[in-house]
Amino acid sequence: MAECLQYSICPASAYNAFEMAKTKNSTFEVTCPDCSAILKIDATTGLVVSHTPAPRKRTFEDLEMAAKAMREQEERTESIFRQSMGAEKNRADLLEKKFAEALKNAKDAPEGKPLREFDLD
Questions:
Q1: Are 58 and 69 in contact (CB under 8 A)?
Q2: What is the pLDDT of residues 37-89, one digit of tens each?
Q3: Could you tell me the residue ranges of all domains in the chain?
Q4: Among 56, 69, 70, 106, whose Cα sits 20 to 30 Å from the Cα of 18?
Q5: How far is Cα 28 from Cα 30, in angstroms, rounded to an integer?
Q6: What is this structure's pTM?
Q7: Alpha-carbon gap, residue 57 to 54, rounded angstroms
Q8: CA–CA separation, 48 vs 41, rounded Å?
Q9: Do the beta carbons of residue 46 and residue 18 sit within 8 Å?
Q10: How many Å apart are CA 51 and CA 38, to the nearest integer?
């Protein structure tokens, strides 16, 4: 609804109908190509008089399919939670290894001031 009403009339699709309806009726209906809503537009002013939202599509055919989808969603979230718990358990070991590697690299690095790009010129 907000997409259609952000303009005074529905964009491109309503223009030709608007011009034709100016001479015939005081209002006309246009179907929004984006959301399939029906807009009633005043021919003289070009403003939206009323808006009928598109009918909502059913997500599930019956209650059994909805329950099945909820169970599958719960299984997915449980799986993701188990994976994140495993990653957290191994995180301390991983951080210790990264720290040891960085410490080793720091000890192997030459001492002194680091060179900058313009020092090489």
A1: no
A2: 888 888 888 888 888 888 887 788 889 999 999 999 999 999 999 999 988 88
A3: 2-52, 58-108
A4: 56
A5: 7
A6: 0.37
A7: 9
A8: 4
A9: yes
A10: 6
